Amino acid sequence: MTLLLASETSSRLVHLSPVDLVIIVFYFGLVLTIGFYLKGRSNTGEDFFMAGREMTAWIAGLSFLSANLGALELMGWAGAAYQYGILAAHWYWIGAIPAMLFLALVMMPFYYISKTHSVPGYLKLRFGESSRALSSVSFAFMTVLMSGINMYSMALVLKIVLGWNINFSIIVSSATVAIYVTLGGLRSAIFNEVLQFILIWAGALLIPILGLIDAGGWSGLKARIATNASAEYTHLWSTLGRFDGNPMGIHWTGIVFGLGAIISFGYWTTDFLVVQRVLAAKDLRSAKMAPIIGAGFKMIVPFIVILPGLLAIAVLPMKLTGEAQAIATGGHSYNEVLPLMLARYCGPGLLGLGITALIAGFMSGMAGNVSAFTTVWTYDIYRALIKKNGSDGHYVNMGRWSTVVGVIISVGTAYLVMDFKSIMDYVQALFSFFIAPLFGTVILGMLWKRATSQGGFWGLLAGTLSSIGMWAWVKVDPTALRYVALSPHARDMAENMYRALWSWVICVLVTVVVSMLTAPKPESELKGLVYGVTEIPSEGDVSVFQRPWFWASVVGASLVAVNIFFW
Amino acid sequence: MKTGGSLSIWLFIGFSLLVNGVLIFGAGVYQVFHPPMEKVVLFQLHANVWWGGILAVIGAIYCIYFAPGKGRV
Fold first, then answer.
1. I need a surface site. Which of A28, A65, A202, B31 has the fewest CB within 10 A?
2. Domain range list for chain B
3. What is the ipTM, given to two decimal places?
């Protein structure tokens, strides 16, 4: 181990003291302890895959958000903020909050009342087996791929920051996640995600606090950014009137309709990675409150992710570049923003906690992917297509084994990424292939009782294939960008937004047309699945402060306020 | 929320904050009396002393509040 650790120490960014190492080792010990402690509570399928459906709103809500705070989220968006300025915050505010509130108030009752164990499971109940098969296979494929990306990102950071060998980092982190998820199932993943969420904040919060002191407060920060980059970097909306008027090369329609209306709603309401956490809530009110609590915290995550990226523009003495240029010149890349800021402000102890925060983020993302994969594989693929009549214990054993296999496939993916680094970009594109059309299918299924099984399947397939087709079209003929993204000046991020929008529109159109040409299900079969034929249970006689709509209104008003403040 | 047996997840979180806080606070106090040759930016604020102290106090409160046998979840 010493050899592995020391093999690449020459290029390290920071040097850990003994107390930093103790903090990191203590973290690994604690997550494993929680896994072993919960081993006795994961013997049934309901316990292993759904955490017994007994989580409080706070646990489910923090876990819901933590599962999303993975490698790409922490490191990637801090780097994006350095590259694109405060525009990156759109992915936290308009690109997340409305969708999370919509999930809580509109969609959660149907997921919860139907007692489904997964999003593909809901599609089975609403549209039949073919829609479930299509969505579960694509989801399983995407999930292990994303888990591998998470793993590789973490190993790369540990190599750059600490000089640790990539193989050592991958083996230790993946083995730790495999052990605690295999032992305790979803309950262990959720509890560790809550711990990881707290540690992420404890380790990362000092960077913006000290950074703002260093930069002379918000006004000092803006003045320095205007000098070092451009004043446009601190405006959220006022530069979005033209594609070439802002650092991201995007128009406000892409942000509002592509990101705000389609991609974010697709991700936050139909990606089982996050929805699974809320399905584990103990009752409907908790299930509705969990995404609202998550939304409240999501509002302030930019403080530890976006703000450090902006502060880096103002205070770092060196200029960061893209990955390829950084490797060629021996400089630092955008993705190293957080470690560079950690190294700038954090002494012994704090550095260990900051590194722990990064590792915790990576592990929560990885565990989220692995536990979601395990459930979809076992219930929606193995039980549905391979072995239909196994015992509950058989499926729990399959869940444990598929956790291990999922981690092993993720490790393989991590090594694949090393050889094909551009796959990071492809994964983002692949992600949008499946999520945007899936949202079209699920939302029509929930809100329109006339949607038929055939309509759901063909709409989902058409949306997915058209998204892949548009991506391939631009790859083969780059000038096609002017049609897909409405402008030849659009960049990758803008292209993703518009491709998602069109694939959603195609999915909805095909679903509607095919549904109108085919026979609908009788209303008696739609109870508990569709708006208009489902009685939503009362929240009981509780005060206004305990009602989900009240807190959703508070979060919604805060969203409007921050967008106006940073206009 | 209870974990497997009788322990709350918040107890684990409190324990983690307490241990990390004490370690960071201790490292910070040591640096006050033995300043390093290469100092971080804003070293004079001694962030590890007060941040470690804050984490330790919050962690201790959680450990006491969610101690086993108190029935809190």
1. A28
2. 11-65
3. 0.93
